[in-house]
Amino acid sequence: MKEDNTNESQKNTGISRRGFLKGAGLTTAGTVMLQSGLLGKDKETIAAGEEVGIEGVVIRLKVNGKMHSALVEPRDTLAYTLREKLGLTGTKVVCDRGSCSACTVWVDNIPVNSCSTLALEVGDSEVTTVEGLAKDGKLHPVQEAFIEHDASMCGFCTPGMVMSAAHLLETNKNPSLADVKNATRGNLCRCGTYPHVFKATLEAAKKMS
C-alpha cells in the first residue's frame, strides 16, 4: 500500500501547493480591487452597466475630456485599455515594463507610464493621451515643433517624448535646455534624436510664450 506523504499541517489546513500558488498569483489583483471598492459589491450597489465576474468589470474612464466605458480585467494596464479597448493607439507600448516611457500619458496632468498603471487604479482621474493634445483639429505647439525639427525617427518613442515635453511647457513657460533634458530624462530614444527633441521643445516654448 502506498504511503501517504502529505504534510500533516497541509492536511489540517486543506491548502494544497497548487491552491497556494493560485492564491498568491491573485494577491496583487485582489488588493487593487479591494482598494478600488470593487470587491464586496453586489449587483444592486454597482452602477448601471457594470458587472463583476470572471470576465472583468465595466469601468468608466475620462479620457481626453470624454467619458468612455471599458470592460477590463484586474490585470489590464491603462496602456492596454487605451489601445485595445478604446482604440487610442497613439500611446505606444515598447518595453512594457516602465523603463522607456514611450507609453507616457497624463493622469490628472501628471505624466505616468501607462504600461505600469492598472486601469482599475485610475478611478475618477482624468487621462490625457497624445491624441488629446490637439485642439479643434490643430496640433499642439510641441507636436508641430517635432515635425518642423525632425524630432522623430522610428516614431516609437515620439508620443511619450511629446507628452513629457508638453507637460514641461504646461508648468514652465520659459524652460532652459537643462530643464528640457530633465523633463525627458526617462524617455529613451533608440534612434538618438535627443538634440532634435531638445531643440523642438525649446522652439515650442517660444511659440507658447
In short:
The chain has 209 residues and is an alpha+beta fold. 39% of the residues lie in helices and 12% in strands. It has helices at residues 8-13, 17-25, 27-36, 78-85, 119-122, 141-148, 158-171, 177-183, 194-208, and strands at residues 57-63, 66-72, 104-107, 110-113, 126-128.
Word description of this protein:
- With 209 residues, the protein is α+β, with helices and mostly antiparallel strands.
- A 5-stranded mixed beta sheet has the order 2-1-5-3-4, sandwiched between helices.
- The termini are far apart.
- It has 9 helices and 5 strands.
Percent range for β-strand residues: 5-15%
Q: Supply the helix-strand structural class.
A: alpha+beta
Helix content: 25-40%
Largest sheet: 5 strands, mixed
Q: Do you know the CATH architecture of the largest domain?
A: Roll
- Provide the CATH top-level class of the largest domain: Alpha Beta
User: Would you tell me which CATH topology of the largest domain applies?
Assistant: Ubiquitin-like (UB roll)
The arrangement of helices and strands along the chain is HHHEEHEEHEHHHH
Overall mean pLDDT:
83
Distance between the termini: 86 Å
- Strand arrangement within the widest β-sheet reads 2-1-5-3-4
The H-level CATH homologous superfamily of the largest domain, spelled out, is Beta-grasp domain
Q: How many domain units? A: 2
